[in-house]
Design goal:
With 414 residues, this protein is of the alpha+beta class. 25% of the residues lie in helices and 23% in strands. The protein has helices at 4-12, 23-26, 28-39, 159-169, 192-199, 205-208, 233-244, 346-371, 387-404, and strands spanning 44-48, 57-63, 66-72, 78-82, 97-99, 103-104, 111-112, 118-120, 137-143, 146-150, 178-188, 252-253, 259-264, 295-300, 304-308, 313-322, 325-335. A 7-stranded antiparallel β-sheet has the order 1-10-9-4-3-2-5. The protein has a 7-stranded antiparallel β-sheet with strand order 11-17-16-15-14-13-12. Helix 5 (192-199) crosses helix 8. The chain is globular.
Length: 414
Amino acid sequence: MLDPDQTLARIRARRPAHALERDLYCDPGVFQADLDQVWYKEWLFAIPAAEIPKTGNYATLQVGAYPVIIVRGADREIRAFHNVCRHRGQRLSAKPCGSAAKLVCPYHQWTYDLDGRLLFARDMGPDFDAGQFGLKPVHCRNAGGMVWICLGEQPPEFDRLQGILQDYLAPSGLLEDAKVAHSSTIVENGNWKLVIENNRECYHCSGSHPSLCRTYSDDPLMTVMEGPHSASPEILSHWDRCDAAGIASRFVNQDDMQWRLARVPLMNHAESFTMSTKAAVSRRMGTIPWNDAGSLMFYHFPSSWHHFLPDHAILFRLLPISPTETEVTSKWLVHKDAVEGQDYDLKALTEVWLSTNDEDRRVVEENQAGIRSPAYQPGPYSPRQEEGVIHFVDWYCRRMTDRLSPQPQALAAE
């Protein structure tokens, strides 16, 4: 098992624009370093706000060693807490979601308000100060109807992304006027970095994703963009059309490529990710005036990628389980008043991405199986087809190098 110094040495020794070496995808020590330096310090997409629309609704998730609970309070605010009772550490809820007037520990019934305050702890004596034993908070932000959490003591800057998401998601109703029509969770037997790498390219799409390729082009020019006025002619024309309708669509990104957004047209004026290529939901989520507005594509390292279409949205979240296991959750959002069987057919809504997710699972698992071999040697990425993978691997290596490198000692004052 590699220690942090050995992990840093492996990262520093990598060849630019090449896949990572074997241990960086398999080793338990590297996995722990990934948790400590990336997953426990970055903003992570958690849930859509529409998943907990009412007071007392909550959702839970597990980020490495940390169980987290996210709850909507009586004041309508969404907050996140460590899902750990302040008495003897019992999880407040083992369920993925639910609703409660108060958060009650099932072990000894310590009772917390939805804002985290301890309200009741039986027989703790006259000197017990309940004010010192509220739930430990987790940094939490609601950006355009997407709930984000950060486990670090000092979270990275988030205000710019929050403002951009408010603007770019507004045509989709900020996701607040939505509901979760379907949720799917699978476990891929591969390292979390392989899951993201597979997502960041379509080099494999024509050979692996026949359903998706009915609507989504595997032409790399459809995802290669250098700025709001630098892209393929087809995309620039699409952005001009969106501009005229007041729909924020042009490429915008974080300087280090941790995240980016852009609205991209689907093939041949396809309306949605469906086998028919037509809209899956007759009741649109927001205010986009035409069905063929394409997909607003948004990714954010290390935890998520998303598609926002005129008729529905699909949110994807990954969570690392072990060096070679990753949980991938997909949620389909539709207008809150859309009626299944009347406004949408659930099979038509979900079948393309359910198939694509399973196809990607098999690809990632075979990728991991090959990398386990002592014969594996990192190969070069295609600069044309795998630019997005290079962005991710470069981002990951910069983060790990910055955080694992010894920090210079401050000079003692004379």
